TrEMBL record:
Disordered: annotated segments: 293-389, 563-588
Residue stretches of biased makeup (Low complexity): 299-322, 336-348, 365-381
Pfam families the record matches: DUF222
Protein name: HNH nuclease domain-containing protein
Domain of life of the organism encoding this protein: Bacteria
Bias kind Basic and acidic residues: ranges: 564-576
Ranges where the HNH nuclease domain occurs: 485-537
Organism: Paeniglutamicibacter gangotriensis Lz1y
Entry-linked InterPro entries: DUF222, HNH_nuc
Signal sequence segment: none
Length: 588
């Protein structure tokens, strides 16, 4: 298979121009064919043919993408001069001039200083407008299905014990899967995923005497499944081989286990944030012991209720304020019969005289004709007088309670202006209960006014008055340098890095002088902005230009993009998008 290497580049520009012209013509022809199909009344057979052809075209394009991504990464495409990259974007968007030969591939010009992009993935995100996940998928696929294997080894023939021919040094790491991707007999994305799973099995295979042969057998089986079955079947085959190697392969070393451990954020779905946790057996034992302490049905020790397991109906204390259920006895003291917490009992009090909670499910119980009833008026049952939370909910509340103990610490650096805490932004009227407008968390997610008022019962409040456009009107004090209060004000106003698309929260960022200090810029909130370290460096390198407009930092220029209207980072200000704000499109 003719696979490009790190040094494989076109020797003649004319050959490159010809190949690009053919590709541009193919793109135009594909668009024309698509327009023709829209006007046709296809029958079942014609639809099947079109679907098959489109799938083959998609697979051919997907594999060539991997090949080109490999070459582009080797050639450090992210260091392209911004103007050159802009010209290329225009040619790709309208390939007619390339197809008819009136335009050619621009001459390569690379940045001599700092480049606008960190790496190839960042370049693809910015110029191809694909997600970070898709960019990583293509890069990883090119490494597994295109790049030459890093250290070619001789394959032992299991039946004779002799060495066979040395593999082609230009062959990719998984040549069988790569061939299936190149000839279009299977979905390229599925093959890349299988290659990643097979690579992860490497440590299990390493110490087996038949490692090379078994690896080849597994690869052939996975390729066959991908070529003849649905993706779920090939994934099942991968799982089956993984199970086999877990029992018959080399055990993972401590170093390999440590490398895989961690807690990973999987996304926000259906109102919940999902995390994946991987831990070694010792950590798992700690978690299980911790969970047993909270979830033992015979234990009277209960974790405090968290916002996610407390009904909003149970949070009114009758005085116009909102607090968590059982606040007076929050160590599980929100249900009938739970004793008052130790701190609320005078020293030396007889245990028989310790007050017991009269709350049922978070609200005071009532007695009618000697029967205890719950907040719905029904007679209280055993489940009413016991904690209604499930074992998973008890475990989660226990973990949240344990973690919350560190959120009030003062030893955490304040480089971004905010120590580790739960931060929300809300209007004062909603905080006082005069309206129910939702607030925004530090990480850009909406949170109800009721939940914010619940947090405010025990949380620290930083009083900051905001104007209608979100500008800071009054901080309460002034300082000549970026003080802690100023950094907090900047963090509250900007919420995160001000560069559009950046997801770094203010707690990890740096305060930047929009008008440089050496040019007479003041060290004030009205001249400060929140920038992550990377974009802060880009600003100082002249690749990003900021400007304060009515007390708000805007991005007014970025290298490689035509100057357009001033922009704000809508990731941290979703209310601008949802209230009718339209992100400006760069125009010539």
């Amino acid at each position: 298979m003719d696979t490009p290497s790190f040094t494989a580049r076109p020797t003649r520009q004319a050959a490159t121009d010809t190949a690009v012209r053919h590709l541009a013509t193919a793109v135009l022809q594909l668009r024309a064919a698509g327009a023709d199909l829209e006007s046709l009344d296809l029958d079942a057979a014609s639809s099947a043919v079109v679907l098959g052809l489109l799938e083959q075209g998609n697979r051919a394009i997907a594999y060539r993408q991997l090949q080109t991504v490999f070459v582009a990464d080797a050639n450090q495409i992210h260091r392209l001069d911004p103007q050159t990259a802009t010209d290329i974007d225009a040619l790709a968007a309208d390939p007619q001039s390339l197809a008819d030969g009136t335009a050619r591939v621009p001459v390569e010009r690379m940045c001599s200083g700092m480049s606008p992009h960190r790496n190839t993935a960042s370049w693809m995100q910015g110029h191809l407008h694909i997600s970070a996940t898709e960019a990583r998928r293509r890069l990883n696929g090119s490494r597994l299905l295109v790049a030459p294997a890093p250290t070619p080894t001789q394959v032992l023939a299991a039946d004779t014990g002799t060495d066979t021919d040395t593999p082609d040094p230009m062959a990719p790491l998984f040549p069988v899967l790569a061939k299936a991707a190149a000839d279009g007999t299977a979905d390229v994305g599925t093959l890349a995923s299988l290659a990643g799973g097979l690579e992860a099995m490497g440590p299990r295979l390493a110490d087996r005497p038949d490692a090379s042969k078994l690896s080849a057998v597994i690869e052939e089986d996975l390729a066959h499944e991908a070529q003849t079955r649905e993706p779920k079947d090939s994934r099942k085959a991968l799982t089956d081989w993984g199970t086999f190697l877990a029992e018959n392969g080399a055990p993972l070393t401590d170093e390999q286990i440590i490398a895989k451990r961690g807690m990973f954020f999987r996304g926000h779905r259906d109102g919940f944030d999902e995390y994946l946790m991987r831990c070694d057996p010792i950590d798992s034992e700690t978690l299980q012991a911790f969970g047993e302490a909270w979830t033992n049905p015979r234990s009277t020790k209960l974790p405090p209720t968290s916002a996610s397991t407390t009904s909003s109906k149970s949070n009114s204390n009758g005085n116009g304020t909102t607090c968590e259920a059982g606040q007076a006895g929050d160590a599980g003291g929100s249900f009938v019969g739970a004793p008052a917490p130790a701190w609320a009992v005078a020293p030396g009090t007889d245990p028989a005289d310790v007050p017991r909670s009269e709350w049922v499910g978070g609200v005071p119980a009532t007695t009618v004709n000697g029967a205890t009833t719950n907040h719905a008026g029904a007679t209280a049952t055993w489940s009413d007088t016991r904690d209604p939370r499930t074992s998973p909910q008890l475990l989660l509340d226990g973990v949240i309670a344990a973690v919350s103990g560190t959120l009030n610490g003062t030893g955490v650096p304040e480089s971004g202006g905010m120590r580790v805490r739960i931060g929300v932004l809300i209007g004062y009227q909603a905080l006082l209960g005069q309206c129910e407008d939702a607030g925004i968390t530090d990480h850009g997610l909406p949170i109800s006014a009721a939940n914010i008022r619940r947090l405010a019962c025990t949380g620290d409040l930083l009083p900051v008055v905001l104007g209608g456009a979100g500008e800071i009107l009054d901080l309460g004090r002034e300082a000549r340098s970026f003080s802690s209060a100023q950094r907090k004000a900047i963090a509250i106003r900007d919420r995160g890095c001000v560069v559009p698309g950046c997801r770094r929260p203010a707690s990890t960022n740096e305060a930047h002088h929009v008008k440089p200090w050496l040019e007479g810029g003041l060290t004030s909130v009205n001249n400060g902005s929140s920038c992550c370290a990377h974009h802060h460096a880009m600003v100082h390198a002249g690749l990003i230009t900021l400007k304060m407009i009515n007390g708000i930092p805007f991005v007014i220029g970025q290298a490689g993009q035509p100057r357009g209207e001033p922009e704000r980072n809508l990731h941290w200000h979703p209310e601008l998008r949802t209230s009718g704000y339209t992100p400006p499109l760069f125009t010539d």
